[in-house]
Specification:
mainly alpha, Methane Monooxygenase Hydroxylase, Chain G, domain 1, about 0% strand, elongated
């Protein structure tokens, strides 16, 4: 009965530890998540920066799985290259060992109960009193999680020490190290946290249940066990996501195999060269060292490794979406980032459609765009105008459906931005629809033998080409929202509409113009005006803050 009680205590400790990790992860993700995502995107310009970024972000968020799943979403959306995504995940493996250092030093060397109990009290109290205030709520999560982490660890320590007194572990000490490796793998596979496996192993060493060498084998098994969550996260994703997940798995298999083959020499290096004889510190040193060594071995071969991964899985993507198709509403901040990227992609393709409909060569915009590779993969360029229009309708539908799912997961400013983004999509589609509606008028004017009609079309074509080049500049990455610039373009669109119409009337007075030609020209001018204003409204909602966006002029649907 006593042994059973201690087993339940051990299970309770694991449960508290897992819950504490969840609370800490949630708090840090919500307090600093977006900044870290932006940091990751900025730092991934080279593989060394990507490794460092992955290590730093994981070291703070304390979840390599969270960072890896975030990277999967971004690589599936084409935000990260395959090479940099793999490099980030390599760094994440190293970053997650920071938690082991905290547990080994504070959890076993310091009477952390002095801080843990007050942290739980303050966290619970703050959560009760200020649960409707977002920042305070997540600070309370952090305090509550911090306290529970070490209370759970204390349960594990006490349980392990009690079982050592009542159970003879020595007869298992001579088991093959492969058995301990498999135990570490299965433990991590079940709890899906290498941090829990490390905490249990440290507790076992501290209690004298196992020795230093078997403990190191247990930790090695956990390195591969934690990759299963990433593999499952890639199921149903595109080829890039599957390749990154496979790359993470192969890296950890290599790490486990390499470190297991040289296990005793590495441990001797730690004890004799580093002169570390404390098994707790020695074990976390081992964990950090093998991750660092494997990264150093892997980095020179990163390019051929990525090429190898690219030979796996066929690219197949029936979805029109390039970014949100791999997002999950369980990660609302990441999903909002990808929704914004999808909106930019939608507006970019709307610009291409309108220019093509108008007969303007859009090659310059196509070639300079960050979306070129995505459109090539989706064969957007080679499609007919009708197919491109159907593609945009399909993409708008996917955005609308995802919007309905995501809006319930966001609040405050994030929800406001999401509403602006979906409004931007609707405006861009309005622009496309208006341009498509005058397709027959464009054909009529551009092929007319009457100078007044042809010259009118050529003038509007040149104006439209220049206008869309300015639209494209606004859409470029890093462009800061400029209210005055948009207002200036908006006013120019109105003035151009009026001046073009007046000029046509003036020319018509001196020329014999048939009634039908007059109607075609006026309708064409009005729908072009509507299309251009709809596009500026799409850009307005994309790049301006809520107040400036609301202050902006509304679209005039008809102007005569």
């Amino acid at each position: 009965m006593e042994i059973l009680l201690h087993i339940f205590q051990l299970c309770a400790g694991i449960g508290l530890f897992l819950f504490a990790m969840y609370l800490i992860e949630e708090s840090l993700k919500n307090l600093t998540g977006r900044n870290f995502k932006l940091f990751l995107q900025r730092i991934t310009k080279n593989r060394f920066g990507a490794v460092a970024g992955g290590a730093i972000v994981t070291g703070v968020l304390q979840s390599s799985s969270l960072v890896s799943l975030m990277v999967l979403a971004f690589v599936g959306a084409g935000v990260f290259t395959m090479k940099n995504a793999i490099a980030i995940i390599l760094g994440a493996n190293l970053g997650t060992t920071l938690d082991s250092w905290v547990v080994a030093t504070l959890g076993f060397k310091v009477n952390i109960d002095v801080a843990a109990y007050p942290a739980v009290f303050l966290g619970g109290l703050a959560l009760l009193l200020f649960r409707n205030r977002k920042n305070i709520k997540y600070i309370a999560f952090f305090l509550f999680g911090f306290g529970l982490l070490f209370i759970g660890l204390s349960f594990m320590k006490t349980s392990m020490e009690a079982q050592v007194k009542e159970f003879d572990f020595s007869k298992y000490a001579d088991m093959s190290l492969i058995v301990f490796l498999l135990i570490g793998f299965v433990m991590t596979l079940l709890v899906q946290s290498s941090s829990v496996t490390m905490a249990l192993t440290l507790s076992a060493i501290h209690a004298g249940a196992i020795g230093f060498v078997p403990a190191a084998a247990l930790v090695l098994g956990s390195e591969t066990g934690t990759t299963i969550k990433i593999l499952l996260g890639a199921v149903g994703g595109n080829a890039s996501k599957k390749r990154v997940a496979l790359g993470n798995f192969l890296f950890n298999i290599f790490l486990t195999g390499f470190a297991f083959a040289f296990l005793k020499p590495i441990l001797l290096f730690i004890t004799d060269i580093f002169n570390i004889h404390d098994p707790l510190i020695g074990l976390v040193t081992f964990s950090s060292l093998i991750n660092l060594l494997t990264i150093l071995i892997f980095l020179p071969f990163l390019n051929p490794f990525v090429k190898l991964l690219e030979s796996f899985f066929r690219d197949s993507d029936a979805s029109a979406a390039a970014f949100i198709v791999h997002a999950s509403v369980t990660e609302p901040e990441t999903s909002l980032d990808l929704f914004r990227k999808e909106t930019e992609y939608f507006i970019h393709n709307s610009i291409l459609f309108n220019l093509t409909e108008f007969g303007v060569d859009a090659k310059t915009i196509e070639e300079q765009s960050e979306f070129k590779i995505i459109n090539e993969r989706k064969k957007y360029f080679s499609g007919t105008l009708e197919r491109k229009y159907e593609f945009l309708i399909h993409l708008q539908g996917e955005l609308q459906v995802f919007y309905l799912e995501l809006r319930t997961k966001l609040d405050g400013e994030q929800n406001i931005k999401l509403n602006q983004l979906i409004s931007s999509v609707r405006s861009a589609m309005h622009s496309v629809k208006s341009m498509k509606d005058i397709g027959h008028d464009i054909l009529n004017l551009s092929q007319s033998s009457k100078d007044i009609k042809f010259d009118f079309f050529v003038l509007r074509k040149k104006e439209t080409e220049n206008l869309y080049l300015r639209f494209n500049e606004i859409l470029k990455p890093g462009e800061v929202g400029d209210y005055e610039k948009l207002q200036k373009i908006y006013n120019e669109i109105e003035n151009t509409y009026t001046s073009a119409l007046n000029q046509f009337y003036k020319n018509a007075q001196d020329t014999n113009v048939e009634e039908v030609d007059m109607t075609i020209a006026i309708n064409f001018n009005r729908e072009l005006f509507t299309s251009n204003k709809a596009m500026i409204m799409a850009l307005k909602d994309l790049i301006l803050a809520e107040k400036e966006a609301n202050d902006f002029n509304e679209i005039t649907i008809y102007k005569t």
